[in-house]
Amino acid sequence: MVFRSYMDQALDEARAAAARGEVPVGAVLVAPSGEVVARAGNRTRELSDPTAHAEVLAIRAACAAAGSERLPGHDLYVTLEPCPMCAAALSATRIARIYYGASDPKSGGVAQGPRIFSHPQCHHVPEVYDGIGAADAEALLKEFFAQRR
Ligand SMILES: [Zn+2]
User: Which reaction does this enzyme catalyse, per its entry (predicted)?
Assistant: First the structure.
């Protein structure tokens, strides 16, 4: 089986988020069949909702479409290391794999900070692959925050 990355689509969602004035983070959820079941970018400002991270919005859409609280066998592509909230939510979905781009020393919760998936209370640990499309994701974030200064 040939590995196909969906990170380009996640980066498109991140760019669309930036255009809306949101922190540029994008996520794509892929079913075991390879079908994209949800795409989302951050909408915390638009929705006045601090939990409206790209990952959470993608999980909500995919679970609603599946009629299930779980997404076994699914893959998530996200442009930035998930925060602790998103990592916990992803564990609850029983997702199979997470591919992320840039690491997030400030708010990341996977490779740093609380390291949710390494915690003994974590009931489901997905496979995690980092650094996928990281340069593009970092450039988007840098550009976004440079414009806000
Ligand atoms: Zn998050």
Answer: adenosine(34) in tRNA + H2O + H(+) = inosine(34) in tRNA + NH4(+)
- Is 55 one of the annotated active-site residues of the chain? yes
User: Which residue ranges make up each domain of the chain?
Assistant: 6-147
Check whether 83 is labelled as a binding-site residue: yes
For 133, phi then psi, to 5°, come to 65, 25
Which residues, in sequence order, are CB contacts of 18 under 8 Å at separation 6+?
24, 140, 143, 144
Cβ 81 vs Cβ 103: under 8 Å: yes
Q: 29 near 126, Cβ under 8 Å? A: no
Catalytic one of 13, 35, 46, 55: 55
- The CATH fold of domain 6-147: Cytidine Deaminase; domain 2 (3.40.140)
Distance of CA 2 from the midpoint of ligand 1 (Å): 29
Q: Give bridge partners of residue 36 from the DSSP assignment.
A: 30
Question: From ligand 1's centre to the CA of 1, what distance in Å?
Answer: 31
pLDDT in tens, 52-78: 999 999 999 999 999 999 999 999 999
Length of the chain: 149
- As a whole number of angstroms, the distance between CA 72 and CA 74 comes to 5
